[in-house]
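As a representative case, we now present a protein record of this kind.
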Amino acid sequence: MPRLQWLTRHDDVRAAARVPYRLLEEVKGLGYGDKNAGNMLIQGDNLDALKALLPYYAGQVKCIYIDPPYNTGSAFEHYDDNLEHSKWLAMMWPRLELLRELLAEDGSIWVSIDDDEAHYMKVMLDEVFGRKNFIVNALWQKRTSPDGRIHMGDAHDHILVYGSQSARNAFNNLALTEEQAKAYKNTDNDPKGSWVSTDFTAQGYRPNQMYEITTPGGVTYIPPEGRCWGNIEENFRRLSAEGRMWFGKDGKSRPRVKNYFSEAKGVKSWSWWSNKEVGHNQEAKKEINTLFGATNAFDTPKPERLIARIFQISTNPGDLVLDSFLGSGTAAAVAQKMARRYIGIEMGEHAVTHCAPRLKKVIDGDQGGVSEAQDWQSGGGFRFYRLGPPIFTEDGQLQPNIRFPVLAAHIWFAEAATPWNEPKTLTPFIGASDGHGYALLYNGILGDKSVSGGNVLTRKTLAIIRSAQGDFSGPLTVYGERTALSEATLKSEEIEFKQTPYDVKARK
């Protein structure tokens, strides 16, 4: 398979493995609404953030949508879109590798890009996600009229889509548009209601689909040249008996099949998305201006209808979506309105100045964008995170400045896959999930920082853990520096001991 070569490729394809593992530190004052809704907004370099998410979300994201810098040579206020080509490739490769690890088996990734880098991105995606997993290059008509300044001005962006066969099989149909619904008529007063008809032929030659059909009006047909009937004769007769065949008002036309509005399950998407269907640049700009004002708007937003189309095809309510180039927060806002869980990552200050305020407005009932179409009212919430320091020193030890609540939150999130609700009073017992308890002996949580003191699992520290766990009585995982308890004692007490930092590092 062809692959891209650039000056620093040898180092860049190994870059993801060299990214230090960092903790995610919640900034409580910047979160909003229901903190347990399962939504995250992360401020920081998305390479570090993606690596930090792996222990929590590897293989769990149903839809990844990214709108990376297009490398157009233009200067944007909120990010640098003027990267030299090889640097752009070097930036994208490790991020795509980490995104691949986060993608669910039946998940899909959708990448917005324009002609400047689209074809390089396609080859890179082929290599990272597998050429056989390429699904389609959807074309979004982003303009409403030609650019009068140049000849052959670009009218579209590319949306490159990758996913396994199970992802394709899980794609949803699109709902009928108002225009499509109007096409259903009931010209013959069919008791099943309004209908549209489709051709009863198929391409090719199949011997058992080459029979003669005589219409109610007495006209006999055979399939047109190069085609056959759309089904075997037995099924044709069944459809006729059910009144599902249409031969025209006079009963003499070539047979067609009735498709009833009451049975319509939507339509499958094709790869041309017009601005009438999913919006355009001006629509996106208007949405942003309404939210933030014309002087504080984001430069290159996508319309909410475009993102809604992607989520409608690739996800269902409750599924997890991820945008690691969140920009002005469109993907997260649409996910909230469509009852999808989301993770949004944005490096710049507009994570605070644009993304968080926009999501707050959505939670409070913002009626812009796709709100009416999704019957959005209000509700939900998100937690806001920033990247903490690397968890390990270069020699593999825990950083001395890692605080107990930060490491406890990491261990809880890694074990229980939910955010940790830090209690007002800290104890070594950090919580229970699905009948299993978790405890952490670290950083003198018991007030004993001696070498053989509070970070060691002993009969004394176990008694303190037991007293802190309240009514919980199930099996227990304890993280600590070492254990002084025998294997027999651990087994009888239903304790699994994990040593820090080594067993924490093993979850990298």
Observations:
- Residues 391-505 form one domain.
